[in-house]
Amino acid sequence: MVVAALLAALPAVAFAQADPRVVPPKDSEKKLPEAPDKLPKVGADRTKGLDFLFGALKAAPDEASARHVEARIWATWMQTSSDTAALLMSRSKAAMDAKKTDVALELLDALIKLRPDYTEAWNRRATLYYVKNDYVRSLQDIQQVLTREPRHFGALAGLGMIMHDVGDDKRALDAFRKALAIHPHLEKVPDMVKSLAEKVEGRDI
Fold first, then answer.
1. pTM of the entire predicted model
2. Strand, helix or coil at 26?
């Protein structure tokens, strides 16, 4: 998979090219796309349902319609057949909301050990590592997410944010464009693409 291969090489390459003048944003300012607090219920046919929803997301005529479809996609990603996994996910979210990052990390570690096939657990931990400025581990978890779900616009946007933070505008632009190709109404990302395109494509690479 091209995306997975790219991500596998990112930690060594991206940090070698990072601009030392770039100051990572404060934890309170760091935010990645995440599931809304209230999620709609979804049907049991996960794969077919996601294919339909991603088609609807790409064709959404406006932001309001896209937000509705996006919430259904997040709801599907959050689903798990394990009550224990669901409880760990719920407790980790509560810990993150309470700014207890170490507790949230321990819970997500346990969740991933229990259910390594639970894609959203990897995505949540990638988000947590990003908030902690641990970009190497965040990138590793993003790779796990995209290997399991290449259409995960949240993980792609997260990849773009990390690359932007370390000063790698070219890879940031590439990741943001991939996210937008999946979710054209993704919040704030169109502005990031416009700004980065002017910087990256207005000069020789």
1. 0.79
2. coil
